[in-house]
C-alpha cells in the first residue's frame, strides 16, 4: 500500500526542482553557477516593513491572529485596491493567506468539485495546474502563442470554455513570459466572459507593479465592473515589496458566497498569518511607494540588456515582454544540434540541462510552463550576473554544431 494519498497521484513536485538540485550539486563541487532561474526579487525588503514587524513584536502583537487577517491589515489592503486599481472592496470582502500560493490553493479547495474545469492560459506558472489537480479539478491549458505576444486571444479563450468550466485564471504580467494585457486586450477577454455567466475568474496580479515603458497595468474587475461579483482579485507583497520570505498574499471578491467559502477553508488550512508579517505588510502597503517605480526602472534596464544580448544569438528568438522579471526565448533554431560537450539537443529540457552542465548557467525549461521549445530566464538578479549569464548562453549556442 502506498503511503501517499490517492489525491497526490497526479501532482508533481515543482518542475524547476531538478534544475535547482543540479545547480546545487555543481555549486557544492566549487563551481560558480550563474543562477537565472529564481523567481524572486534580489532587492531587500523595505526597511519600514522590517521596522514595523520588529516594533509589533516588542509591543506584544504576538498572539493568535484573526484567521482572515487583522482589521488593520484588511483596511490597508482595501486602501491599496482603491489606490492602485480603483476597486472598492470592503475589509469584510478580503481574506489574507500565507502567500499568493495559499490564496489560490484555498480558492480551489473551496470551490472545485471533481471534474470541474479550470482554464489556464499557457505558458503558466508551474503551480497552477498542480493546485487545481490537488483540489480535484481538471486544468485545461489554453495556448498563448508567441506570435500573439504570449497573450490570451479571445477566440482561443472562447474555444476552451465548456459547460464544465468553473474558473478562468488570468496572470498578466505573466510568469514565465512577462506578457501583460492592455486595457483593450483585457476588455476583449471580459467580453467573452460576459457571455459565460457561470464561470469565475481568478486574476493573479502578483506582478502588477512590474511593468515597463509606461505600460499601464489593468485588472479585469476594474476594466469590466459587470464581472465584479465573479472575479477573485488576488495579489500579495512577495514580488512588489521583495517580501517572498514573509509569506503573505490576499484576495477579494464582490461575491459574498465565494469569500465565505474561501474564508472557511482558510480558517482550517493554517491558523492565520504571522502577526509580525501582517504588521510588516501594513507598512509596505501604506508606506512610501516610490521604491516600486525605482525598482521597476532597474528591472527595465535589465530586461532591455538581456533582450539585446540574446537577440544577437543565432538560433534564439527573444520576444520583448511588457512586465514581470522574465524573458522566454524560443530555442527552436537549435533543435537537432549537438552541444560542444556532445549532448544532442532534441528538447528545451536537453538545452537547459546541457547549458547548466557545460556552461554553469541555471535557467528553466519551457516544458515546465507548458509551452515548448522555450526556456525561462529570470532577470531578478544583478547586472553582473546577467552579463556573465548572457555571455555564457551566447557561447553555448555559438559552439553548437
Ligand atoms: N503567482 C505567480 C504567477 C507567481 O509567479 C508566484 C511566485 N513564483 C506566486 C503566485 C506565489 O507568490 P507568493 O510568494 O505570494 O506565494
TrEMBL record:
Any single GO BP term: amino acid metabolic process
Signal peptide: none
Record key words, sorted: Aminotransferase, Pyridoxal phosphate, Transferase
Protein's UniProt keywords contain Transferase: yes
InterPro entries with a match to the protein in the record: Aminotransferase_I/II_large (IPR004839), AspAT/PAT-like (IPR050596), NHTrfase_class1_PyrdxlP-BS (IPR004838), PyrdxlP-dep_Trfase (IPR015424), PyrdxlP-dep_Trfase_major (IPR015421), PyrdxlP-dep_Trfase_small (IPR015422)
Catalytic activity: L-aspartate + 2-oxoglutarate = oxaloacetate + L-glutamate
SUPFAM superfamilies: PLP-dependent transferases
EC number, UniProt record: 2.6.1.-
Source superkingdom: Bacteria
GO MF annotation: an example: pyridoxal phosphate binding
CC cofactor: pyridoxal 5'-phosphate
Residue ranges of every copy of the Aminotransferase class I/classII large domain listed in the record: 32-393
Pfam families in the record: Aminotran_1_2
Summary of subunit composition and partner proteins: Homodimer.
Family listed: Belongs to the class-I pyridoxal-phosphate-dependent aminotransferase family.
Name under which the protein is recorded: Aminotransferase
Organism, scientific name: Allorhizobium taibaishanense
Source lineage: Bacteria, Pseudomonadati, Pseudomonadota, Alphaproteobacteria, Hyphomicrobiales
